[in-house]
Each structure stands twice: as structure tokens, then as C-alpha cells.
Design goal:
- This protein is of the alpha/beta class.
- The chain is 31% helix and 23% strand.
- It is built from eleven helices and 14 strands.
- A six-stranded mixed β-sheet has the order 6-7-8-3-9-10, sandwiched between helices. Strands 2-1-4-5 form a four-stranded antiparallel β-sheet.
- Strand 7 (159-163), helix 6 and strand 8 (190-195) form a beta-alpha-beta unit.
- Helix 3 (97-107) crosses helix 4 and helix 5 runs parallel beside helix 6.
- The longest helix is centred in the middle third of the chain and has 14 residues, at 112-125.
- The radius of gyration is 23 Å and the shape is globular.
- 46% of the residues are buried.
- Residues 8-238 form the ABC transporter domain.
- InterPro entries: AAA+_ATPase, ABC_transporter-like_ATP-bd, ABC_transporter-like_CS, ABC_transporter_ATP-binding, DrrA, P-loop_NTPase.
- It is found in: Cell membrane.
- Its EC number is 7.6.2.2.
Amino acid sequence: METTSHAVLAEGLTKRYGTKCALDDFDLTVAPGTVQGLLGPNGAGKTTAVRILSTLLRPDGGRALVAGHDVAVDPRRVRRHIGLVGQNAALDEAVTGRRNLNLFGRLFHLDKRRAARRADELLERFDLVEAADRGVKHYSGGMRRRLDLAASMILAPTVLFLDEPTTGLDPRARNEVWQAVRSLLAGGTAVLLTTQYLDEADKLADRIAVLDRGRKIADDTPERLKRELGGDRIEVVVREAAHLQPALRVLALVTESGGEPLVDAEERRVTAPVGDRVAALTHVARTCQEEGIAIEDIGVRRPTLDEVFLRLTGHRAHEGDPDPSTPTRPDSSGAGDPGDAIDPSAPSGKEVARR
């Protein structure tokens, strides 16, 4: 394996749970100072991949290097170079934000003065100075997430794993987290981001790997993935589900050669690539009216990642079954199966970063 230019390098990673293959021959490379998105529905294998790369699960096959160290051969050394932020914030809500960061600093073997200095630096970096001496229980969702990110950066990790960090947050809080993630890249930190949110992957990721049922089915930049769907797309949203198929037949008449319409039944939406946007829009609007197809909305726009995912997998990004590597207990940072941990002392939460 060539390691010099990669923060993360994985080849042929495989993980099985009984007869279910949670991760199947998975390859990945992540360059320093970039965001690599892992996109897929529940059960696609995103969390399994992150747990293997962060030393919380042992792979059944394949090999992975993180910061130049083998996750199976030398997990303790890997942990000195990584940070991990799961879906649930690993914070003590009974104390202040500053106290939380000081505690993490001491946990990571910083002396009292260095821990306090690092806490001050991170509070400023993540725009938490004004809330530093306020109890975390009074923080908003976005503030807690930013504090969680700050705690994961105590020792400036080479690689930061973000496993669906904005799940359950409102749009404003999600934007706060996105801004915090962008601030990490200037220092050369590589970020591996798993998400079900298409807009999140589009805004943050330099590259996106699409997973479905344990297999990687695409890996490219967001723009190139969207470009594969062609140029302009006409979009029709019908008022009733019964009108989806008639609308599909109408759009098929204006679909650009080599393209195909896509149907999103949940959103009652049909889209198709077109060449002459004005002619296509006029024809579709007139034909739908003539055939009694009730339209809620119609327009022409550029392709979205949602459509890329729909074409690649046949279903929407948030559909699917739970990832078998995800624990059922409330603390989502622990190992899914005791037998899968790389060693009995494998830590949970942020302790994985520096043991």
C-alpha cells in the first residue's frame, strides 16, 4: 500500500454479521486537508466503515491504514492520530463548556496549564467564547455539536471521523456545524463524514463515496457525480400519486437522447434531462394540461445529488435498514459486538482518539 499522500487508505475491507455482509470489498482513499463524504441510507455500511477505520471494529477481510498505521496491527498508534464524533454528543452537561474541554485535555495527558490554554484556543476557534462559562445543559443543539467537535480536536488529530454529526439538528444548528467543519481543513485535518443528508454532502465534501447494501457503487466529486446525469433537468411535481405514471410518459417524450426520467414516488416528482429547456417546458406544461394531469410545480434546474443517488441505487438516501454495527444501547460510541473490538481495551467515544 502506498501511504505517503493519504490520510486514510483502505483496500478490500469486509465485515460480516452472520449471513449479512455489512461491508463488502470496500476501498477508500482520503487526502490530507479534505472532506470525504460517505453517503448512503441506513444499513449501507457507512457506520461499519467508520468503526473499522477508527479501531472500534475488527474487519473480517482487507486492510486499512490511518495516518500511516494499520488499524488492525497497531490500533493504539492509530488512536493517537484520530478524533471521533458520533451521533450523540460525549459531553458532561452538568459543567461548563470550558470545564468540558479542560477535562478532555487532562484525559489526553495535557498538564493543567496546557489543557487550559488549548481549551481557550478551541473555544475561540469554534465561536464559543461567550458561552464558555455557561452550563452545557443550557447550550443549543448547534452549540453542543460545536463543543463536541472542539473536544475531538484537543490534540489536533490527523483524521477526524464525523458519523452523522448533524442528525436531529435544525437547519440553523446544521449550518453552525458545517462552518465549524470547514474551519478544520486549513490545518490539514482530513475529515471522513458519514451522512444521510444530500445537501450536507454537497456543501462539505470534496469527494463523495456512495454506499448501498455494503458496497461502494460510486466515488467522485459532487460536481462530476451530478454531471453524469446530464445538463438541465425538467422537474414535475404532481398533486396526486395516481398522476405519476401519466407524467412519466409525458416527460419521456422530451427526454434527451441517452437519458432517462427518474421517479421519486415519495415526493410525487418526475425529472428528466432535456436539451432545449424552453421547448421542453412548454411541451410538458401543455400536454399535462390536455391530459388532465394536475401539476403542483414545474420547472427546469440543474441535477441534484438526490437524483444521483436515486439513479445509482433505485431508492432515496434516507431509506434502508439499520447498520448492524450500530449499537442498540443509548451510547452509540461503544462497540456493536464485544467480539468485534480490536482489543479488549478499545475505548469508546472520544477516548478512541488518544489511548
